[in-house]
Each structure stands twice: as C-alpha cells, then as structure tokens.
Amino acid sequence: MADESPAEFENTEAVAVAEEAVTREPGNFWLQRRPISVAASWTLLVCGVLGMAAAIALTLDRIQLLIDPTFTPACSINPIISCGSVMVTDQGKFFGFPNPLLGLPAFAVILVTAVLSIGRVRLPRWYWVGQAIGALLGQIFVGYLIFQSIYRIHALCPYCMVVWTIIPIVLILSLSRALPDSGLGRSIREWLWILLPVYYVVVILMGTVQFWDYWKTLF
C-alpha cells in the first residue's frame, strides 16, 4: 500500500484539528461530539431490539384482534397477566390508534443510535438532547400507563412491561450524553443510576401489593 501523501496527511490532520475544536470550543456546545462507551452502546442496542420486538408483537396481536375479536394473544396468560385486556381499553389507544405504533419509530431511532455508537460514530450533543427529550416523554407516558394498568385496568401486559423496563435505561444513557461535563452534570448522572433501581422496586411493589390477593393463590 502506498504511503500517505503529504497533502492527504495535511487534510487528515486538519480534520482532526477541526474535530478537536468542535469538542472543546465553548461556542460549539451543541455540536460537541459525545463519546459513549462500548458497554453503553451495546446496552442501547439490547434495549432497542427488545423494545422493537415488543412493539412488533403487540402490533401484530392488535391487528389480529381487529380481524378476530375472539383471538387470545399468547401473552394473555391469566386474569392478571393479560395483554388482551390492556389492548382493548381506551388507554391502549391513547392517541386514537394502538400505542405500539408509537414504539415502532421510537425504537427504530434507538436501534440506529446504537448501531452508530457501536461503530464508534460520535454523535453531536444536540442529537443526544433530542433523544433524551423523546425518551423523557416516553417515560412520562410509561408512568401514566403503569398507573392505568395497575389501578384502573387491573391487568399487566408482559410486552408492555418490557418497555417499562427499558425506557428508563434509554433515558439515562441519552441524558448522560446530553449533560455537560461539569460537576453538576456528573452528579446528575450518578443520581440517575441510583434512582433506576428505586424505580424498579417501586413498580414491582405497586404490582405486588395491588394484585396480592391473586399472587398468593399461586403458592
């Protein structure tokens, strides 16, 4: 292979200098290309795959229910663990169409982000801010659906619970890339990871207490 020419070397060095300037120059805060670890990249990929799989499964089951109202989804296991009970409610089509249709484009974005990150593409901060905002809106919607499922519909959808599990992880990973590298930014990142297991414990306790009369019949 031929050696790199002086002109090519100068161009490469110029690009490197320009990228370094974008990373460090305060005026280019939104253009700073944010690093992400290999572990975080693969975690995003797993979340994207699981979320997309859940959204596709729910969408297909919802279509089947429209075709055949007597259809019983495979995830309808018992009176409490029942996707079908959730799908047919008004909460299951909050915006006038089945909620899983929101997940298809949303998790497609997560998958693209994960693949780019695994490929060591450093995405700009504005991208991570946008994804963090989207994940935050998703988390708010998930919180609403958790409350409705447990206290109003009185049923739990397994595929929905997959989404309940992964959305906060996506939010934290996205927000961690969006936050500035200041002392405050680092503190927020640390607290987010501390709050994640608290979120899981609270949701598990809600479901356990609300449906305890049923759970205890299984033992």
TrEMBL record:
Primary location group: membrane
Ranges that cross the membrane: 36-58, 101-119, 126-147, 153-179, 191-212
Subcellular location: Membrane
Domain of life: Bacteria
GO MF annotation list: oxidoreductase activity; quinone binding
Coiled coil spans: none
Vitamin K epoxide reductase domain: residues covered: 37-178
Membrane topology: Multi-pass membrane protein
Family matches, as InterPro entries: VKOR, VKOR_Actinobacteria, VKOR_sf
Keywords for this protein: Disulfide bond, Membrane, Oxidoreductase, Quinone, Redox-active center, Transmembrane, Transmembrane helix
GO cellular component: membrane
Family: Belongs to the VKOR family.
Descriptive protein name: Vitamin K epoxide reductase
